[in-house]
Amino acid sequence: KQWYQRRVRGDFKEQKSAANFPGHSGPISAIAFSENGYYLATSADDEVVKLWDLRKLRNFKTISLDDKYTVRGLTFDNSGHYLAVSGPDVRVYQISKQCDLVVTWDSHTQDSTDVRFGPDVSYVASVSNDRTLKFYSAN
């Protein structure tokens, strides 16, 4: 985390790019940093979420989504072990070599526009174009 903070602060002052992460084939739609500073998640109109290791500056996992899945929001839990994705539904992935899908909720009547984890991943909250806020138990 300290390396990342030093690198970004220095590059802001110098107005230089700290790193370039190519790989998406469409416009970027969402971005999230893990709390520990190790990971970056990006999504685009190409129906994938890419996970980047900021220590090695490389893509270590690409999560393929459903056809025409538009990601509206991404967020890591505080530990960096889980990633939530909001769009036509709300999904939680466990960050590992496989990046397994843990759970999917589809209770909104329109696209979910953002998602957040509660303390200690005790719940997940999502908001939607249907003007609702939903809480999901992580148990």
Précis, in short:
This protein starts with a helix and ends with a strand. With 139 residues, it is mainly beta.
Number of helices: 1
The whole-angstrom Rg is 15 Å
**Into which percentage range does the β-strand content fall?**
35-45%
Q: Helices and strands: which structural class?
A: mainly beta
Mean pLDDT: 86
Strand-and-helix sequence, N→C? HEEEEEEEEEEE
> Major β-sheet, in short?
4 strands, antiparallel
The count of β-strands is 11
Can you describe what's shown?
This protein is 9% helix and 44% strand. The protein has 1 helix and 11 strands; from the N terminus they run H-E-E-E-E-E-E-E-E-E-E-E. Strands 1-2-3-4 form a 4-stranded antiparallel β-sheet, with no helix packed on it. A 4-stranded antiparallel β-sheet has the order 5-6-7-8, with no helix packed on it. Strands 9-10-11 form a 3-stranded antiparallel β-sheet, with no helix packed on it. A hairpin with a 3-residue loop joins strand 2 (39-44) and strand 3 (48-53). The radius of gyration is 15 Å and the shape is globular. It starts with a helix and ends with a strand.
